[in-house]
Amino acid sequence: MHILIISDNDSDLNWVNAPLTATGLSVNIIYAYTMKEATTLMGSVKFDLLLYDLAFSEKKMSDNFKELAGIGMKIPLIVLTEIMGDPAAKEAIQCGASYHIVKDRVKISAMAESFRSILQQQTPNYN
Description:
One of its GO terms (biological process) is phosphorelay signal transduction system. It comes from Panacibacter ginsenosidivorans. This is Response regulator. The chain is built from six helices and five strands. The chain is of the alpha/beta class. Strands 2-1-3-4-5 form a five-stranded parallel beta sheet, with helices on both faces. The longest helix has 13 residues, at 108-120.
């Protein structure tokens, strides 16, 4: 499965590998630091899942989601939040995100289970 992580924070990009790898699924993780990079990658790779860090600072979230949707995105989009009940997560769901997950560096196995559950609902584009 191919997963695109959109974030401009290296520490967020690096730590999220652990729960994705802990899913036990075969995942290929690709990073995008800008929306231009993300849209370019989406034009050349068939992703099974997008992870979007709500701390991402390039443009407004709603504008970024519109840009992703303009590519014809029908890929599940998970937003990553810092805290439970983050109002931005509710806004993200209203703007088209499929799910939100709290970035919990301590509960890796709980995050892995959330990712596994979401990924297993999807039919991979290719392996």
